[in-house]
Specification:
GO terms for molecular function: DNA binding; histone H3K4 trimethyltransferase activity; transcription corepressor activity; zinc ion binding. By secondary structure, the protein is mostly helical. It has 16 helices and twelve strands. The chain has a three-stranded antiparallel sheet with strand order 3-11-10, with no helix packed on it. The structure holds zinc ion (3 copies).
Length: 486
């Protein structure tokens, strides 16, 4: 943590600034979780130490609740699991994720004291909880959480005051960071990273935060790494510059982003992009060209899109994918008469329809939509945005499956360049992408020289699955980086 320092940022309270120079892709700091838990629905599918999704996990013989990859992960977990393990046995069952996380934090404070722990710039006691800004509904939830917590908290552990317990739940509520599996496909848990909590939001930030599950297999070697987050620079940062990350996805008009930030994180965004409404015109673009639509037609298309998105959500959560596709195609027809290619409502439909069609293996139609989507994304997102990189990767894979090798390879290369900055070269997703890049490059060369050999090679590649099949689409909206419920 030598490269950063805490300071008071004008109008924003506490912040973090750089004390040396950084360039795109530099890791400014890495931080292990102060405490972290797996989501209730996944406790038997994800390792409780490294948060990797694994086909085969070993169960803790004591509580029969915790699961681990192997002995290494289990041994690593013991300091944090020991008290939890006996409390679960006593309680008869494990409480929900919120209670488990609060208890883990409390046990750690009990062991180490509430002051600064090694490598932390801020103590848990000093983190913001926003309890005083809670509405009635939130206060009710908080009371229920505290009640369940007290039922679970063992009598032999330290006695805790109400204020202290409320503080911890408040901290979890606004600072819980979402953890994903090793492929970045699914949110699997939540953790508290105190240093990360010090970094203020900007809709156009100079850093990104990425979760790395670590590599536990290489015990006792230099490749052995632990689960952590990394703060990475998106471009050049000079000494004295404030560090910022974006708590939410950029693809919303500034007014909507501000509303979301106020609701979820209790502050008014005063970033340059919000103040000047930068890119709002693109995000709400009307169709260009000779037949300009009337403002009413644009309004109508947007309302139609909103209504359709609701129907799509329902069909998608029920797994009726052909209905999703039908709704999307209808909506696109309406949109194409009135909306511009960077309009967010059009992009939302393109994102859903390309994902669902890929899953249904209609790759060619999916590729067309994916191409339009990433072309627009490149005009909207910061060039090193992780979301952009992931979208380029998915679009590249779809093109590859559609046999559009040249375009596919191009997108995979672009995605790789973004992920080298946002995820770093050793992240599993970047490594996957590198394999895909090499594979598609070879195929492209083959395609240009000898088409027959190219098709032979494709067959082999399809069997080896160097380039993966598409995961089933989920209804999960990309959460903010902090886990707080909407
Ligand atoms: Zn593990
Ligand atoms: Zn146990
Ligand atoms: Zn903003």
């Amino acid at each position: 943590m030598e490269a950063v320092e805490v300071f008071t940022s004008e109008g924003k309270g506490r912040g973090l600034k750089a004390t040396k120079e950084f360039f795109a892709g530099d890791v400014i700091f890495a931080e292990r979780a102060y405490a972290a838990v797996v989501f209730d629905s996944l406790t038997h599918l994800v390792c409780h130490t490294c948060f990797k999704r694994q086909a085969k996990l070993h169960r803790c013989g004591q509580c029969k609740f915790a699961y681990y990859c192997d002995r290494t992960c289990q041994r690593d977990a013991w300091a944090n699991h020991k008290s939890e393990c006996s409390a679960i046995k006593k309680h008869g069952k494990a409480p929900n994720e919120n209670i488990r996380l609060a208890a883990r934090i409390m046990w750690r404070i009990e062991r180490e004291g509430g002051g600064l722990t090694e490598g932390c710039l801020v103590s848990i006691d000093d983190l913001q909880n926003h309890v005083e800004s809670f509405g009635e509904e939130e206060k009710k939830e908080l009371r229920l959480d505290v009640e369940s917590f007290l039922e679970f908290w063992p009598s032999e552990s330290q006695h805790l005051g109400m204020q202290c317990i409320s503080h911890i739940f408040g901290v979890i509520n606004c600072n819980g960071f979402t953890l994903s599996d090793q492929r970045g496909l699914q949110a699997v848990g939540v953790g508290i990273f105190p240093n990360l909590c010090l970094i203020n939001h900007d809709c156009w930030p100079n850093c990104t935060v990425i979760f790395n599950n670590g590599n536990h297999e290489a015990v006792r070697s230099m490749f052995h790494t632990q689960m952590r987050i990394e703060l990475r620079a998106l471009g050049k940062i000079s000494p004295g510059n404030e560090l910022s990350v974006s708590y939410i996805d950029f693809l919303n008009v500034s007014e909507e982003r501000k509303r979301q930030l106020k609701k979820q994180y209790y502050f008014d965004c005063t970033c340059e992009h919000c103040q000047k409404g930068i890119k709002d015109d693109l995000l709400l673009a009307a169709k260009e060209g000779e037949e300009k639509p009337s403002p009413e037609a644009v309004k109508e298309a947007i309302q139609f899109s909103k209504d359709t998105l609701e129907k799509i959500d329902k069909a998608r959560s029920e797994g009726v994918y052909h209905e999703v596709v039908k709704l999307c195609r209808e909506c696109l027809k309406k949109q194409e008469a009135a909306l511009g290619e960077t309009n967010i409502y059009l992009l939302r439909i393109l994102s859903i329809v390309s994902e669902v069609l890929s899953y249904l293996q209609f790759f060619e139609e999916a590729a067309g939509y994916a191409k339009r989507m990433v072309d627009a994304y490149m005009k909207l997102y910061h060039p090193n945005n992780a979301q952009l990189g992931m979208a380029l990767m998915r679009a590249g894979v779809t093109h590859w499956h559609a046999g559009l090798i040249e375009a596919g390879h191009g997108m995979i290369c672009k995605a790789y360049a973004v992920l080298l900055v946002t995820h770093g070269p050793t992240h599993p997703i970047t490594k996957d992408l590198e394999a895909m890049r090499i594979q598609s490059e070879m195929e492209l060369r083959m395609f240009q020289q000898n088409e027959f050999m190219y098709y032979k090679m494709r067959e082999a590649a399809l069997q080896n699955q160097t380039i993966q099949v598409m995961p089933e689409p989920t209804n999960e909206v990309a959460p903010g980086i902090f886990q707080r419920k909407q």
